[in-house]
Every structure is written in C-alpha cells, then in structure tokens.
Amino acid sequence: QIVLRGSLHRSDTELSVPERRCDHKQAADLLVQLSSCLSIKPDVAEFGTVFTDHMLVIEWSLNEGWKAPLIKPFGDLSLHPACSSLHYDIVFFVFNKIIKSSSFMLFCLSAKRACLPAFDKSELLECIRRLIELDQDWVPHSDSASLYVRPTFISTEPSLGVKKPSQALLYVLLCQAGSYFNTNTETLSLWADPKNIRAWRGGTGDCKIGGNYGCSLFALYEAMNYGCQQVLWLYGDDNQITEGGTMNIFLHWINEDGDEELATPPLDGLILPGVTRQSILELTTGWGEFKVTERYLTMSQLCSALEQQRVKEMFGSGTAVTVCPIGRIVYMGEYIFNESIQTDHSFTNSQPFHSSWASNFPS
Ligand SMILES: Cc1ncc(COP(=O)(O)O)c(C=O)c1O
C-alpha cells in the first residue's frame, strides 16, 4: 500500500507518511493509501454486494477530536466486542447516488439523535468527492445503474454502559446500484397491516438510525409470505399511510373535493425526509399542473378513492428506486388494489417527469 497526502494521483511519487496530528477536520489533511490489488469490476452487481476498491474512514474521540480523514483499501473494520453500536445500535447511515444531489441535513439530524459528534459538511463532501474520483471507474456505464455512496457513522465506544459515545467512526463506502427491488414486474406490491409500526411520534422515524431498518425485517418477511414485496407502513387509529418499505409514498388522485392532487404525508417526525420526495415536490410544484400537497392520507380515504376510480397512480420514491409505481396492495388480508384496477401511471410515465428528472434534479 502506498500512502499519499492530499493527493489522489496514483502516479504521485512523494510517499511521505505525515505525522498523525489530532483534531483534523480538513479535507486538505486527507491521507490516501492506495490499494495494491484492484478488483475486477462487474457489469452491474446486485445492490449492495460488491464494493469499490477504496473506502473513506474518519475516526473521532472525545479526547482527541477528529483525526485526519483517510482513504484506504476497502476492508473489514475491527471493533471491540463491547462496542456500543453493536449492543445499542448507535449507528446511522445516509445514502446518495452520484447525481447532483446529496442530503447532509439528514446526516446532521441523525448524528444529533444518535449523540454522535458533528462533522463539517463541506469538508466531508470534499473527502467523499475525492473517494469517488479515485474509484470513478466503478461508475456504471448504464442509464439504469449508478454508483451508490453510503456514509455510515457508528459509535466505537468500547464499553457496555448506555452512554454518549466517547469514540466514533465515520466511514464511507461506494457500491454499484442497479435495480433495488429484485423483481421482474414493473410495479410493486405492498402489504398493509396496522399491527406493524415503523415509526412513532417522538421516535427516530425521521432519521436513518440503523435500528429503524433491523426492526422492520420481521414485517417485511410477513409481507413476503403474503406474496407482497414490501410493507405499506400505517400509523394511528385511522390507519394513516406513512411510508412503503424504505420509500416515501405519493398518491396522484382526484381528491375528495374533485381536485387533481399529488399528495404525500407531511414531515411530522414519522416520515423520513427523503431527498427524492423533496425533489418530486419541488419539480411538480414548478409544473403547476395539479395541486401538490403534503397532507395526511388514510387507508379509508384510499379505499374510497379506489372504489370511485379516483386514483390515477400511487408510487414510492427513494434514491434507490427513484420512483416505483405501486401495482398491488393487500390490506387486512384482502386485495384493495390490483392490476384489474386501472390506474393510468400518468405521473411515472410522463415525459415532463422524465425530462425534468434528468436535467433538473434539485440540489
Ligand atoms: C424509511 C425511508 N423512507 C424514504 C426513503 C427515501 O429517501 P431518499 O429519497 O432520500 O432516498 C428512505 C431511503 O433510505 C428510507 O429509508
């Protein structure tokens, strides 16, 4: 392995190892250890299974602050067995594709909620930019695939007490992302049962805390037993629609007042403030073609709208899927929505959507 300072050029011959001063926060202090063994790049690998040759790691401790960021060959982490991220789930992540957008607001929000230290946004962005620059050959040559960026922040506190971490590790992985859902169908099926709750008021539903996802697995496999691909998460006595799997949910419909509306649940602490959700809201508001609303939607409103054929389309949104039309919903064991109910997919198939998305992705 070769160690370079502040440079990503493999041809660099200056191989000094700088002394490891503490409390570095600057991308200018970035150290680079190049991998001596580059992997063979697959065409497009299954989502999240094959990682690029390098990763970014930045260590923090209460006593010493942030150490210099380090890009190093991709490899395992070594963690103390008492590490509090393993025991108490003090871990969160965000993810972005390399398109023009990234969300650091969510990163900061999640760090605060997990009692992990703050990291300077622009310095981190610059370190990530340089990681991507180094592994740029991994960016898929395909319109339907992308390079996925996974910043992850964990407590490395090596003791069993439930307390604010005194040590932490911020690291960033890159992997190729093709189709997120392993499905041959063009639409997604969702299983809705109010007995499973993804998030609640005062909880961490609006952060990317690891536990939100681990806890959702049981319901996901229940959904699969019912022949569905994902869970439609409901909340409250009136069965409000909140999210679908790991996607924000949109309903394009003729609402109760007869208006054409694109609606999605409001950010009230239950909902993950998705970048794609925000982008769709901004784009469609700009079109001015229909009402765009952040509002509560309940299952009974959806059922009535389906009966009265007022649903134009329902879809999920997320970085991984972009937008994914929903084709089937099983609610309390019954299909309320299936291919026999005509929805026009007018949103996800619309030309304005596709061209705006490509050229206008808001930052
Ligand atoms: C629970 C949840 N909702 C929605 C989203 C979509 O967010 P984004 O558009 O930022 O990818 C995600 C993405 O991870 C998620 O985990």
Description:
It is a single chain. The protein has 363 residues and is of the alpha+beta class. It has two domains: 2-177, Aminotransferase class 4, branched-chain amino acid transferase, N-terminal domain (D-amino Acid Aminotransferase, Chain A, domain 1, 2-Layer Sandwich), CATH 3.30.470.10; 188-360, D-amino Acid Aminotransferase, Chain A, domain 2 (Alpha-Beta Barrel). The chain is built from eight helices and 18 strands. Strands 1, 2, 3, 4, 5, 6, 7, 8 and 9 form a nine-stranded mixed beta sheet that branches. A six-stranded mixed β-barrel has the order 10-11-12-13-16-17. The longest helix has 14 residues, at 121-134. The protein is globular, with a radius of gyration of 22 Å. Residues 1-22, 98-102 and 357-363 have low confidence and may be disordered. Bound molecules: pyridoxal-5'-phosphate. Pyridoxal-5'-phosphate (PLP) binds next to strand 13, helix 6 and strand 16. The modification N6-(pyridoxal phosphate)lysine is found at residue 208. It comes from Gouania willdenowi. This is Branched-chain-amino-acid aminotransferase. Its EC number is 2.6.1.42.
